Amino acid sequence: MIIKLKQNMIAICIIVVSFAIACLFQIYGNKTYSRYNSENVHYNRGTVIEILDESITYDKISDSHIGSQKIKVLMKDGKFKNKEIELSNNITKTHQVLVKKGMDIIVNVDAPKNLKPYFTVYNYNRILPIVFSTACLLFAIFMIGKEKGIKAVIGLVYCIFLVAYILLPMVFSGLSPILISMSCIILATIVTLLLLNGKSKKTLAAILSTVIGISVSLVFFQIIAKWMHIDGFSSSEAEGLLLIAEETGLNVKNVLFVGIMISSLGAVMDVCMSIVSAVYEVRYHNQGLGFKELFRSGIEIGKDMIGTMCNTLILAFTGSSFVTLLVFASYQIEFTQFINSNFFAIEFAQGICGTLGIVLSVPIASGFSAYFLCKE
Fold first, then answer.
1. Euclidean distance between CA atoms 189 and 270, whole angstroms
2. How confident is the model at residue 130 (pLDDT cuts 50, 70, 90)?
3. Could you tell me if 120 and 152 are in contact, meaning their C-beta atoms sit under 8 angstroms apart?
4. 98 phi/psi in degrees, rounded to 5
5. Distance (Å, whole) CA 376 – CA 372
6. Entry pTM
7. 212 Cβ partners below 8 Å, 6+ apart?
8. 41-128 has which fold?
9. Which pLDDT value is given to residue 158?
10. 174-375 placed in CATH 1.20.1640
11. What Å distances lie between residue 126 and 19, 84, 123, 139, 201, CA to CA?
């Protein structure tokens, strides 16, 4: 146990320091801003105990039910815990929350001082399926991955921690999006790969390859973004970002860079680690190979990975925008109009630059692996 702790000491130290930085920033540097006054509005859990009345019809066009329900709900938490309340549930084509007796729901409680509280059905209570599906995933990782599976989960939790408690608050508070996101990516890469493979030249090669691959994506994105005249002001959320910027100093112009770096990190790290591991395995079975042969082996291995990983990244961007593309289709916009829109320009730049980072990671990872092996 002590030996394992020593092997992961660097990763443990980075995690502890990151936690300390997050705590200090929350106390001394964090800036808060809310577009809405939500002090009197809360979302509490409740269980439907009775359907008092309902008028529901089936809509063939949308293949859904619309109408209204009058229901009685037993509140499970919040100011009205253990109290029974009656409320109306309006079911529309965009608010499809058809409840039944015994169903757990989330109730929007609007309770201003000195006024009668107002209750509405917000949505289904999805906590149980979220917890169950997460537990299934963790169980599969632990059973199949064993010790490495546990380390992989720790690395994932650390990445989520970096985004939620360091990256988001610091960028929100006006710090440089590029500097903070790059720092978080370096930390996430170091901790994840050190936990999985320990301290070695193999891990160092994977870390250097990942960081350089992401850096290439960032530099190319800056070039193409300037050429295409896109930045944070081009996004559909620009108005909301400007309101935040007025209060916290948010750097709206560079927020797009954060998205490209985060979305590319997993794929680039996967490619780099896979190639480095494969090259080391090739050298293990043939000690006589030199730098040129090992480098070519890495390139050949990477050729098969490029196709699948490029498809993964491009399709991920397309899938996340599919609903928006359907809406665009309904407007019958012209091809020239579409490809010159801010939406397409941003998605195109992110997809191209992320994919370029993956492609260039292949020779970078192959080169570092061959270099360190020949040096040994």
1. 11
2. very high
3. no
4. -90, 110
5. 6
6. 0.81
7. 361, 364
8. OB fold (Dihydrolipoamide Acetyltransferase, E2P) (2.40.50)
9. 92
10. yes
11. 29, 21, 8, 20, 45
Residue 43 has pLDDT above 80, yes or no: yes
Confidence of residue 36 (pLDDT cuts 50, 70, 90): low
Structure tokens at 153: 């989960």
Name the residue with tokens 């000690």.
Answer: 287
Amino acid, single-letter form, for residue 296: R
User: How far apart, in whole angstroms, are the C-alpha atoms of residue 34 and residue 29?
Assistant: 17
Residue at token pair 């309770």? 111
Spell out the residues 6+ positions from residue 178 whose beta carbon is closer than 8 angstroms to its own. Answer: 218, 254, 257, 258
Task: Show the tokens assigned to 222.
Answer: 């800056």
Quick check: do 41-128 and 174-375 share a fold?
Answer: no
**All structural domains of the chain with their residue ranges:** 41-128, 174-375
Candidates 205, 108, 192, 200; CA nearest to 155 is 192
d(CA 286, CA 119): 71
Phi then psi for 121, rounded to 5 degrees? -80, 120
Q: Which residue has the higher pLDDT, 376 or 330?
A: 330
What is the residue type of 260?
Answer: I
* Two structure tokens written together for 312: 């993964």
Query: Over the chain, what HEC string results?
Result: CHHHHHHCHHHHHHHHHHHHHHHHHHHHCCCCCCCCCCCCEEEEEEEEEEEEEEEEEEECCCCEEEEEEEEEEEECCCCCCCCEEEEEEEECCCCCCCCCCCCEEEEEEECCCCCCCEEEEEEECCHHHHHHHHHHHHHHHHHHHHHHHHHHHHHHHHHHHHHHHHHHHHHHCCCCHHHHHHHHHHHHHHHHHHHHHCCCHHHHHHHHHHHHHHHHHHHHHHHHHHHHCCCHHHCCCHHHHHHHHHHHCCCHHHHHHHHHHHHHHHHHHHHHHHHHHHHHHHHHHCCCCCHHHHHHHHHHHHHHHHHHHHHHHHHHHHHHCHHHHHHHHHCCCCHHHHHCCHHHHHHHHHHHHHHHHHHHHHHHHHHHHHHHHHHC
User: Tokens in use for 239?
Assistant: 């108005």
Q: Does residue 89 contact residue 108 with C-beta atoms inside 8 Å?
A: no
The burial class, CB within 10 Å (0-12 / 13-18 / 19+), for 372 is buried
